[in-house]
C-alpha cells in the first residue's frame, strides 16, 4: 500500500524547483482565463492562473482556516473547495481550486507556504500543482494486443484533453510500422518498445529502465502481471483498466466470464495496481445494461466502450489531483 | 420455471367464471379506444419456447388472427448459434369468439407440432392470480414494499401467507397490515440443525412460486426439488460479487464505486441461480456503511419488484444453463 500514491510525495518536492518553472511563465497568459470554462469579465486581471492543492493529514480544528488564509494572504481566490472527514476516522482531506497572480505569489514561494502548513499539521500528503507552470506528468503506456484503450488515450492526448507527456509506449505484442498506432506514434515522436514476455521472463528490468523517469504508468490492457518486485522498484503509481466490474470477473476474459454468468449489467473498473491481481484500490467504475439479445461480441464491444471511458475518467481525475488514498484499500475521489 | 408447465394443464379447467371482469379490457394499453372498437376485448399473453424452425411466427400469429385476436406486441428472440426460438406476444381478443378453453387447446396444438419446451398462455382478467408465499427473516423493507404495492394493485398476485424465522410483535406495522388483509403470518424458527423445511413445504405447496424477500436461510436442494416450482430471491449485492452475508459491508470494505442488487432464481448453490434483474447506484468516499446499506435497500426494493412484475407478465424465460431471457 505504501507503493501507491508515492508520487504525491515526489511531486511535492519537485514543485519547489523554481528554475525550470519560471521558464514556463509565458504560457500562463493564454491558459488562465479558460480554467473554469467561463468568460471572465474585464474587471478580473488576465494574469490570474489556476492552482490546485490537496491536503491529507490527521484531523484537528483549524486546518481549513489555515489553508484558506494561506491562499488569501497571497491574494489567491478560492473557486472550489472540497473537504472530507470520514466518520470515526481522525483524518482530514481537502482539495482546493484557486486562481492567483504568480507575480504576487511566486511558484516557489507557494511550494514553501504549503509545505509549512503540511509540517504544522503533520500531513501525510500535501501537493500543490499549477497546471500552466508545472511540468506535465510524464507517463508510459503499456499494452498487449488489444489497442482500443491506447488509441483512445492517444487521440484524447492529441486533442489536448489528456494533459500529460507520453514518454513511450511499451508492448509485449509486435506491431507493423504501417498500422495506425505506429504511424501515429512516429508522427508524434513517441517511442514504441516491443518487449516480448515469456512465462519465465517478464522482462521487468528492461521495463523498469524504460519507465524510471515517468510520474506514473498506465496499463491500457497490458495483460502481464507486474510483480511486487517491479512495483517496489518503480515506487510510483500504476493505474490499470480492468474490463469487468470488480470484484466480479477478475483475471482473464472478464467479458466472457460475464456472458457465461448471465449478468444483466457489465462494467469496467479502473484501479491502482498492487501485488494482488485486480485487487488494488478502485478509482472509477462504470456499467452498461446487457440482455439476452447481447452475444459475446456485443458484450465485448460494450466492454471496450466502457473501458475507454472509465480509464480516461480515472486518469483525468488523477491528473487533477482528485484521487487520494483512503484507508488500506479505498480511494477518495473528489 | 417449472411453474409454466403446471399452468398449461391448469388452464384447461378454469373457464368463463370471470367473464364479468372483462370490462377492464379497454384500459389494457393505457390508451382510450374509440367507439368503433368493441369494449369486450381483453388482453392475453402467450410465450413460446421451442426448437427453431421456419414458420413458427406464421403459425402462432395465424392462430391468433384466425380467432379474431389482434396482436399488439410481439417479441421474438433466436440466439446466435443456438437452435432455439423464443417469442412473447401480447394480443387482445374477444372471449366470446375465442373461449378461454379453446385458446389453450389451440396453443397446445401448436406446442405439440413444434415440440415446444414451453408454451404458456395467460389471460390476466380471467385466469386466477398467481398464488405466492413471501419468506423473510429480520429485515422487512422488501416485504413492506411488496405488501404496499400489492395493496395499490401494482402486484397482481394473491399472497397466501408470509413465513419468517423471526418473530414479530402483533402491534407492528407488518403484523397489523397482514391481519387487516387476512394474510396469515407463520413464525417458523430455524436452527443450524433444523431448517424446518418440511413444515415450510407444507405451508407453500399450493403456491405458484415463492419470493425470498431477505430470507436469510439457505433452502436445500431437497426443498427445491420437493417444491418443484420457481423460487425468486433478492440479493443485495451485484452478483457474482459479494455472495453470501452482508454484501453491503463487503462492498463498503472493498471500496467499490458502484453498489447493486440482483434478483435471481434460487438453485442449490448459494446466490448463483439465473439472474433476472440487476440495478446499480453510485457510491463514493462520502458514503459510510449506513448509506451503503440504505442505498442497497432502496435498490433491493426496486429490483425485486421489477423482477416479480416481469415474471408475472411472462417476460422471464430460461436461457441456456444459467441465464434468462427477459422480454
TrEMBL record, chain A:
Keywords from the UniProt entry: Hydrolase, One-carbon metabolism
CDD domains per record: ACT_F4HF-DF, FMT_core_Formyl-FH4-Hydrolase_C
SUPFAM superfamilies, sorted: ACT-like, Formyltransferase
Domain ACT intervals: 52-135
One Pfam family this sequence matches: Formyl_trans_N
InterPro entries from the UniProt entry: ACT-like_dom_sf, ACT_dom, Formyl-FH4-Hydrolase_C, Formyl_transf_N, Formyl_transf_N_sf, GART_AS, PurU, PurU_ACT
Name recorded for this polypeptide: ACT domain-containing protein
From TrEMBL, chain B:
InterPro entries: ACT-like_dom_sf, Formyl-FH4-Hydrolase_C, Formyl_transf_N, Formyl_transf_N_sf, PurU, PurU_ACT
Statement: the UniProt record of this protein carries the keyword Iron: no
Annotated Pfam families: Formyl_trans_N
SUPFAM superfamilies: ACT-like, Formyltransferase
Location (main, coarse): mitochondrion
Molecular function GO labels: formyltetrahydrofolate deformylase activity
Cellular localization per UniProt: Mitochondrion
Keywords linked to the UniProt accession: Hydrolase, Mitochondrion, One-carbon metabolism, Photorespiration, Transit peptide
Domain Formyl transferase N-terminal, residue spans: 131-308
GO CC terms, sorted: mitochondrion
EC number: 3.5.1.10
Catalytic activity: (6R)-10-formyltetrahydrofolate + H2O = (6S)-5,6,7,8-tetrahydrofolate + formate + H(+)
Keyword Mitochondrion carried by entry: yes
Top-rank taxon, per record: Eukaryota
Role according to the record: Deformylase involved in photorespiration. Prevents excessive accumulation of 5-formyl tetrahydrofolate (THF), a potent inhibitor of the Gly decarboxylase/Ser hydroxymethyltransferase complex.
Family: Belongs to the PurU family.
UniProt cross-references to PANTHER family, sorted A to Z: FORMYLTETRAHYDROFOLATE DEFORMYLASE, FORMYLTETRAHYDROFOLATE DEFORMYLASE 1, MITOCHONDRIAL
Protein name from the UniProt record: formyltetrahydrofolate deformylase
Originating organism: Brassica napus (Rape)
